[in-house]
Amino acid sequence: MWRPIAGLGLSMAGAARGSDSCFVRGTRIVTPRGFRRIEDLDVGDEVFSLSLERRAPVVRRVARVLRARATEVLHVAAGELVVAGVTAEHPFYDAARGAWVDAGALREGTRLLAWLGSADVRELSVTAHRPAPSAGKVDVFNLTIDGPERNYFAEGLLVHNKS
C-alpha cells in the first residue's frame, strides 16, 4: 500500500509485495524538455502522455511521485528501446490486444506502443523479456499523471501510471 508523505507528493510502499509497480532508478521518461530520469521528476513537472483514442501525445503534469523498494525486476526490450528494470506488476500497452498487460505477462513478439518525442507513435515488438540482475532490494519509482490518459512513456514505451 502506498502512503503519501504529507506536502511532498511522495509516497513510500508498505510491506505488501504486490504494491510495487514501478521502475528502477535511472529509467528515462519522455518530457517536453527531453528525457529525464524518473527519480528527478517532481510534482508539477510536465511529461508526455498518449491519448489512445487519437493515438497522439499530449502534455500532462506529474501529480505524485511514488517510491518503493523491490527485490525482483524485469529487463524488457522492444526494438532499440530498453527498460533495464521494471516490476512485474507494471502495465505496458499491448497494441495488438488494445489492452494494458503487466510486464510479467509480456512475451517476445508482444507489440508495444513507442514514442521518443518526435515523429509518429509506432509499434515495436518485445525482443527481450527476462529477470534483470539485482543486488537485493532496489529503489523503484512510479508517477501519477494528471489527466484522463493516466499513462506516460518510460524509455519511450507507453506504460500506465498504475496508481
TrEMBL record:
This protein's source sits in the domain of life called Bacteria
Name the GO terms of the biological process aspect.
Answer: intein-mediated protein splicing
Write one Pfam family the protein is assigned to. PT-HINT
Q: Which residues form the Hint domain?
A: 20-116
Q: Which PROSITE patterns match?
A: INTEIN_C_TER, INTEIN_N_TER
Record protein name field: Hint domain-containing protein
Q: What is the lineage of its organism?
A: Bacteria, Pseudomonadati, Myxococcota, Polyangia, Polyangiales
